[in-house]
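Example complex used in Figure S2.
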Amino acid sequence: MKVLVLGGDGFCGWPCATNLADVGHDVVIVDNLSRRKIDIDLGVESLTPIATVRDRLTAWEQVGGAPIRFEHLDIAKDYERLLELLRQEKPDAVVHFAEQRAAPYSMKSSGTKRYTVDNNVNGTHNLLAAIVESGQDIHIVHLGTMGVYGYGSHRGATIPEGYLTVEVPQPDGSRFTEKILHPANPGSVYHMTKTLDQLLFFYYNKNDNIRITDLHQGIVWGTNTALTEKDPRLTNRFDYDGDYGTVLNRFLMQAAIGYPLTVHGTGGQTRAFIHIRDSVRCVQLALENPPSHGERVKIFNQMTESHRVADLAEKVAALTGAQINYLSNPRNEAVENDLIVDNRCFIELGLSPTTLDDGLLTEVVDVARRWADRCDRSRIPCLSAWTRRQAAALASPA
Amino acid sequence: MKVLVLGGDGFCGWPCATNLADVGHDVVIVDNLSRRKIDIDLGVESLTPIATVRDRLTAWEQVGGAPIRFEHLDIAKDYERLLELLRQEKPDAVVHFAEQRAAPYSMKSSGTKRYTVDNNVNGTHNLLAAIVESGQDIHIVHLGTMGVYGYGSHRGATIPEGYLTVEVPQPDGSRFTEKILHPANPGSVYHMTKTLDQLLFFYYNKNDNIRITDLHQGIVWGTNTALTEKDPRLTNRFDYDGDYGTVLNRFLMQAAIGYPLTVHGTGGQTRAFIHIRDSVRCVQLALENPPSHGERVKIFNQMTESHRVADLAEKVAALTGAQINYLSNPRNEAVENDLIVDNRCFIELGLSPTTLDDGLLTEVVDVARRWADRCDRSRIPCLSAWTRRQAAALASPA
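Predicted assembly (796 residues):
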């Protein structure tokens, strides 16, 4: 099928685009290259050297990949060109990664909060409005986050796939049962934008019958897929900095360069994880199994396992001999939580989870060691404070 | 107290601002005058002739009102000036009416959908981010809508004030009870933006302890208050057109000029109503009874009674001898619904509801008759279609 991959130059988008082309879909990457520009603003680079989009696409064809086209377009700012693109390309589906995706970045300043809200909400809404205006029947596959559910819910409760069945007691003693969108409890401005996306999807699905799959993804780890390993110019990005680096990849990279592992708070936070190879496979499965017409928004929990952050640090320490450094927590979140997640939908579609094994962990350490001289150690600490109190705690660490 | 009234030049904002000044608060109106500009774009005018902001404020002082200042500012576009204003004025509270507030307008085109989302979300988020950045403790009173709940819920169920107590059955047979934000079910892009506002408020209240009161208002009817009747230059606006006119005021105005009452669909839609005088009083009550520090977002249902649209049409017809015209419904909504609303919070704070009585209805008819020659009958029909199917039905009416 014809697929537009919005944000197809990013960390999840690029391996996803190559995979979709590899399995026979006709892929167009749409990207405003904002992620590369934010690197410039932050004065930081991907640990792995990444080629330009043009060089990536040339290399892709040189290793035998079916051509992928590229449209340089900001979907949040240039509605008319987005609409024109839908009319020209007539895609069967759009994979939507085109959002600012880092929680710490979203909390750096009022400027980054405002950018994240403006970019993410208008980007998603422009896409929905353009699909309606185009009159076409286009399936949206959107990258959401497990963070929409929050991590403060009842101990032992299972997080369902998007919808929660509740009973509502009435004043007269009667009660009715209803299946509702799981209550939102975001932990950062970034996560909040994904809860706003959910309501945009709910409305446009209800009013205009747009077919939508929303993927509530866990924290991605790993860096390359078999395809992005085919040529150095296809290498995927690897973020290690305090803004964009995610926890497990940061630990592995810190271990590689002999930097004490940065555990924030007690490390009692439990989070959901997924390897980049499974992420890519899940997007493909979602794309190839769209909701039927008239079906409500399909929501999948895109994760394969849950771990306590402290346990991950200990695992990485045991594997590599790294030290662990417990730091004050810049986030406003529960000190500890459990996390039981239902992910049956993808398992039933045939996903065979890649779980945390020593071989894959070592592979990431090897990548990090290879590019260790590209690391700017001063960019490792996370300096975004969620609140004034936490900013004060960061300024004078315990 | 010092109060900024954002959107203080609009239909609810203006009578609210004068009332707050009248009861002794120090009021600054902040408005970008977008409502007047949309009139220009639509080629329509308030039925009542309204003075410029400057003339309104001059007249207000001439009738003995305490001075109200005016800041011409777009809070969705000019964050820096908004922040500067908070720093200079150090308000105790902000009343936030500064949103595009018409459902039909929000559904006119992809342009008006996009404007409504961009303006409303960024306006609200800028206010929240600016309050955090200012470091001040400012209570926000926000005008929301009853429409966040939707009108398709279980027959006989009572709509609570913002939060719903639910029981959540677990796979192991246990269950827990939780008080959640009432599930959102908006009926237009405009209503959707108010459901997004709710999540913005939820997050900033949780993360930054901002004190917020969200008023889920019903459909406002009436036009003037005792204060705006004191001088012709203080007159409030009266919208009768298919975009901004609201149902009961439209019926009364149609009756005044001998135009058949425009009932869309069967008229079986039940909606919540409130007179403009009560709306003004509720905002004052909310302002003077803020949530305590650490309290979650306070949500009030700001309405005094529910009516079926067809019943209202019949009541107006009986009072005035008007004809009723049943038209195809441009909206995508339930044909009929019941509506039982809990509004105890305002009653307990001392609100004495102004209900639909013949005297007040007649007063609106009199206002409409007085200005009947200003009416452009061609602007009465509602031309915004919610979906393509409805656009086709409107194009060839039954």
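The longest strand of chain A covers residues 139-145. The mean pLDDT of chain A is 96.
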